[in-house]
Amino acid sequence: METLGYLAQGFAVALTWDKLMWSFVGVSVGTAVGVLPGLGPALTIALLLPLTYQVDAASVFMLFAGIYYGAMYGGSTASILLNTPGETASIVTALEGNKMARKGRAGAALATAAIGSFVAGTIGTIGLTFLAVPVVDFALRFGPPEYFALMVVAFATVSAVLGTSVMRGFTSLGVGIFLGLIGIDLQTGQSRFTFGVEELLDGINVIIVAVGLFAVGETLYLAAYKELRRIDTIAVKDSIWMSAADWSRSWKPWLRGALIGFPIGAMPAGGAEIPTFLSYWLEKRLCKHKGEFGHGAIEGVAGPEAANNASAAGVLVPMLAFGLPTSATAAIMLSAFQSYGITPGPQLLTDQPQLVWSLIASLYIGNVMLLILNLPLVGIWVQILKIPQSMLYGAILVFATIGTYGISRSVVDLILLYIMGAMGFAMRRFDFPTAPVIIGMILGPLAEQEFRRAMTISQGDLTIFVTRPLSLTLLSVAAIAILAPPLWRMTNMSRAR
Amino acid sequence: MPSRRELLVAGLGSAALGLGLGGAGAQTEPLPKLNVMVPSGPGGGWDQTARTMELAMRTDRLVRDYRVEHVLGAGGAIGLTRFLATRKGKGDEMLVAGMVMLGALAANKSPAKLTNATPIARLTGEFEVIAVPANSPLKSMRDLVAMFNADPGKVSWVGGSAGGSDHILAGMIAKAVGGDARRVAYVAYAGSGQALASLLGGQTTCGVSGWGEFGEQIKAGKLHPLALSSDVRQPGIDVPTLKEQGIDVELFNWRGVFAAPGITPAQRAALVRLIERMVKGPSWQAELKKKDWTDIYLAGDAFGKYVSDETARITHVVAELGLTK
Amino acid sequence: MNLRESRSGLFVGLGIIALAAVLAWQTSLIPSEAAYAQVGPTVVPWLVTAMLAVLGVALIFETSGERDAAEEPRGALDHRPLMWVIAGLVINVTTITYLGFIIASTALFVCAARGFDSKSPLRDAAVGLAIAVVVYVGFDRGLGYEIGDGLIENLL
């Protein structure tokens, strides 16, 4: 098996002390930011992006991968003990997990979440290991028309699932595309949307938008609305382990969660929200203790948490193979690759095999570290919740400043950061989702460039998108993704009548 | 290519070495301080030039304190503007710049002019290569030109961003063979890896790129090189130049150093001497070999004339490509 | 409640339409016929402009029933703490080039902490200064960032 040989080489790199240290720092920081409400992996990685100018790629990606996985574990702790999901993928965990904690079963909930995350995270990583090569082989056949079609699929599905309404999701997406178009057009060298500001010719750095929307925006929002700042932590009273009954009720949901989470995460439409909701729905259907659902059913924690972590591994498949980010965190990791001059895509595995395989190896290692950090040592993370908010958000703003001003020393960038912060505040205030802005900002210009490349190659012939079988297939998938839900709803409604 | 971190570590190491040895064997007093502005981000060609200069100057003990500052944006226009505005008359300030900046200044209609800085020396350069996939029916520039002249739309050229050195070369070739530079069907990619993938995947007709980016694939036989943009054949590379094939075009993606505007002739002479000692020194020569950079050292007034000629030539091509409208 | 909801919808919709107008103005400034391209640089900007304009109109007429209410009650907007944080940001951006990162960040920290109900500005100043110094030393000296000069930076 060629794959296993590569993976062994990856472990050889990832198991050196230097790299283990980066992994460990990553999973620790990741768990911490996952636990803290309002902070997430996307924001943390965005703040640490300037590291890419200084540290070698393998170390940085191990750190980022650790943060990414760690935040998934930490998020479940916050959901269970605080009922404040650290990130969107943990919303479902809070439903049953917090109920369990209120009934004095916090330990069992934490345990099934951590072990389930470990089991599913490992299954997902195995999936990534063996899917990486075949998916890349597939991706090599992609030209500009296929890439464009793939991005249409991503657009059709990603934005609709994020946020409270489709219209608001698309508005966020449109604003993101606008931000992404700012700067010099790659194909013709013309400046667009620069408002005569020379600093905008290179476009707006995605870090500034991400940090502004997430960190500054969240800080302004919490400052303005005191109600949201109230947090009551539930103490862990029982032992952090599971009874035999808990085990027998947990293992099947773990496996089912992993099997739902990974493939959906790996799809260009992916993300972590759909699989967690799907898993919750499925466990509720299958559960023998239906009455417990809504009052702290362990299956409702085990399944979604497993789905969440398996999808986290899945999201890395399109990111590494196509350079296609399907979550905000993946989008920011993509810009980290770009800052090394590395373009994720089919060439990545042949150009940078050591980097990719050591990254994958570090995911296995990170999962083991996280299991230890989150089971016996969960008490430490609960302590983090005792940092006064005034100190925490003050420090976040200082880090946001260094994350932007430290890269460019440009006051223009700092002003942009605050404009984005104000926008993030307004979007929260009026219930617009913020993640599609980042996705639109990255995917929009990519899709535009691929479309125009395809048109240059075809000499302006639009049929290039439907005469190539792969491109046609992808566009059909996109059409189904857009048309199916309303059609399904209509038929259901007519049946109900 | 060494990673940035290795470069950094090497730089620190040699700095420590320099301190340890003191000034004992130095013939001339080292310059106390040199600030070098890089008008692009860390890791790029200009940054590598500045870092390699640092390494060479510190190892050969030509300066005591060497600082690099990055001012990125607009293909170097922002850095140049700031350099011209804030460093007037200062004899210990330098700017790394090159051919790419001329294209960017012209395309952005930037009021700043590179000729307003004081030219010191051209240091290195990279020639470009025009290549096709190994299985392409095109075997020489003559085939490519015939196809282009028959229908320019059928030939898709892939390379870096519009207005960059790859695009400029494509435009120069089109013009030299009697075509219209604006009819070049140019497919731009931000990264050379993607451009390479599109060429290898047979999506585009031909690719234009620096030798460094296509060299590996050419040696591996996956790409077939049609021509080099250098003035003469390059040692060790069995590829004819454009001129040999009857196309009167030569292009170097050169990089050089400039001093502040309004410095005295004595200050200028001192900097020219400093760079000359660096270029002739053992460390710089060793680094050139290690990095496979072409040495095209040209100093003083000759470089000054070269810069103004290049400015006129590049500005003209960029206009012909239709980028300055 | 209903009146307030519809008013906020009108406000949001008009805001998006205003943004679309700005986009239309900027797009009209892009020279489209300059360089050779099958699809010029203005096509997608016009599409985005149209998309936002349509969504802006639609948002005006969106009723609150078409979307879920906010998941958590946020209570009333409190101006005072918000103003403290904004003041901190403004002080930071106006002083950072003159006084340096450390002083500007300390001021930002103190204002932000005040916005989050901290009652001891002296302690905040001490904590903020410590964080700013550690961040500066770690990033500028340790990792080789170029954060620039400043009153305290030049002493370190």
Question: Can you give me a brief rundown of this structure?
Answer:
The complex is a heterotrimer of chains A (497), B (325) and C (156). Chain B has helices spanning 4-21, 45-59, 77-86, 99-107, 141-150, 165-176, 192-200, 211-219, 265-280, 282-291, 300-320; strands spanning 31-38, 63-70, 93-98, 118-133, 156-159, 185-188, 206-210, 223-228, 252-259, 294-299. With 325 residues, chain B is α/β, with parallel strands linked by helices.
Main β sheet profile of chain A: 2 strands, antiparallel
Q: Give the fraction of residues assigned to helices of chain B.
A: 40-55%
Reading the helices and strands of chain A in chain order gives HHHHHHHHEEHHHHHHHHHHHHH
The helix-and-strand class of chain A reads: mainly alpha
The overall pLDDT average of chain A reads 83
Q: What's the average pLDDT of chain B?
A: 81
Detailed description of the structure:
Helices cover 74% and strands 1% of the residues of chain A. Chain A is mainly α. In chain A, a hairpin with a 6-residue loop joins strand 1 and strand 2 (191-192). In chain A, helix 8 (166-181) crosses helix 19. In chain B, strands 1, 2, 3, 4, 5, 6, 7, 8, 9 and 10 form a ten-stranded mixed sheet that branches. Chain B has 325 residues and is an alpha/beta fold. In chain C, helix 1 (2-28) packs antiparallel against helix 2 (43-61), helix 3 packs antiparallel against helix 4 and helix 4 crosses helix 5 (121-142). Chain C has helices at 2-28, 43-61, 79-99, 101-115, 121-142. Chain C has two domains: 2-66; 79-155, no CATH class. Chains A and C meet through helix 8, strand 2, helix 9, helix 17 and helix 18 of A and helix 1, helix 2, helix 3, helix 4 and helix 5 of C.
Set out the fold topology:
The complex is a heterotrimer of chains A (497), B (325) and C (156).
Chain A: H1 2-14, H2 17-35, H3 41-48, H4 57-82, H5 91-102, H6 106-139, H7 144-161, H8 166-181, E1 183-184, E2 191-192, H9 206-224, H10 244-266, H11 273-286, H12 299-322, H13 328-339, H14 346-351, H15 353-374, H16 378-384, H17 389-408, H18 411-429, H19 435-457, H20 464-467, H21 469-496
Antiparallel strand pairs in A: 1-2
Helix pairs in contact in A: 1-15, 2-4, 2-15, 3-4, 3-9, 3-13, 4-5, 4-6, 4-12, 4-13, 4-15, 5-6, 5-12, 6-10, 6-12, 6-15, 7-19, 7-21, 8-19, 9-17, 9-18, 10-11, 10-12, 11-12, 17-18
Chain B: H1 4-21, E1 31-38, H2 45-59, E2 63-70, H3 77-86, E3 93-98, H4 99-107, E4 118-133, H5 141-150, E5 156-159, H6 165-176, E6 185-188, H7 192-200, E7 206-210, H8 211-219, E8 223-228, E9 252-259, H9 265-280, H10 282-291, E10 294-299, H11 300-320
Parallel strand pairs in B: 1-2, 1-3, 5-6, 5-7
Antiparallel strand pairs in B: 3-9, 4-7, 4-8, 4-9, 4-10
Helix pairs in contact in B: 1-2, 2-10, 4-11
Chain C: H1 2-28, H2 43-61, H3 79-99, H4 101-115, H5 121-142
